Please model this.
Amino acid sequence: MGPRVQLPPEIQLAQRLAGNEQVTRDRAVRKLRKYIVARTQRAEGGFTHDELLKVWKGLFYCMWMQDKPLLQEELGRTISQLVHAFQTTEAQHLFLQTFWQTMNREWPGIDRLRLDKFYMLMRMVLREALTALRMQGWDERQTEQLLELLTTEILHPDSEAPNGVKSHFIEIFLEELTKVGAHELTADQNLRLIGPFCMIAAQTQDSLVLHNIAQGIFETIVEQAPLAIEELMNELEEEELSEEEALSEEEAQEPGMLSRESHKGSVCRAQRPLDKQAEDDDEDSASPVLQFDYKAVADRLFEMASRQDTPPQNRKRLYKVVRKLQALAEGLFPEADIPEEAYWNPRGGRRVRMKKRLSGSQLQGKTGRHAKEALGSDLSPGSMRKRRRRRAGGDPAVPRERPGGHGGRGAPRRQRRPRVGAKAKMAGCQEPKAKRKRTPEGQK
Model:
């Protein structure tokens, strides 16, 4: 028997990550983090592309084997935070690149029962990638490298990303960017971050990708415009209040104002915590929104859509978005063009005006013709035409009697008259008793 071959550490970790026992998988994840930190600290160290593909294959099946939603969320957070264990930006980008390549390769084999946890894993990995970018101060060069990586592996027409991966990535990009950098990013930085979507929307031949980008990116920007402007106004008000408080503190430090503030100190100290608590509640209730220069976004989209190589359907779709953004830049919101009646109908579309029905007490107060008119106002046009036909032959106030006697319920039935030829033909035959017509006594 020959000597036993020693497997590389990446293959050993991948085998343990895909083990059947949860204890073995958890221990392998912890060891992997330590191994990444120790290997990337060395100048000559680092991972190759194939080694990280093997690591991600083990991490993929580690997530595949995990049950229970809370444990899946915890494992997804642990896996996504492995990007911070790499000491260099190039190693982080290689780790992210191999992740998206692994998802593109394994996506067709994911069943619908395991789909949600891999959606969650993609969301968490994207969030941690943006968090790493924020920790580096939103550096322009590193931002361009990350955007180029995401475009090449997911958005580009030549990429191997399935439609499910593309659609989910487009859907969650602005959401995760808002959570990570809404309080720090400027309008110019946000325009740079959505630049790849403008380019792909103008070049793609896939109508699904065009629709998803138009809805998930540009229409979302238009819908969040009122919230963004409101948040900007709140920030300006907070700056004015802080300036006023600074001026009031300077005035309070003067010798003439010290004696006055000493008498009111207890009341002011009792009120300040309540004010701070109210401000904290307002901050929790208001979600942050990304700020955009709508004119700059419209100009960028118009530049991309007006090129000669842009497909006609892409140009037509993007021009609609450009008009909305230009209107926002001029201070006109899309909701101002919608009539007020459209908001009253919960189903959307035209508003249906319903007639007010009279109650039973109101009908009791109406007698005779007025009661009939009150009831007739709620009838449909078809029923009104039937009533006109019945009233054409006589006085509507005098009810007709049925052939069978009094006490008939409802409106009288119209008797069907047989044809003359049929009556002559059946004259010699005896009709059954059930079919024999009874004549009233006064006509005998």
In short: Confidence is low (pLDDT under 50) at residues 256-285, 336-380, 394-408, 422-429. The radius of gyration is 38 Å. The CA atoms of residues 383 and 404 lie 26 Å apart.
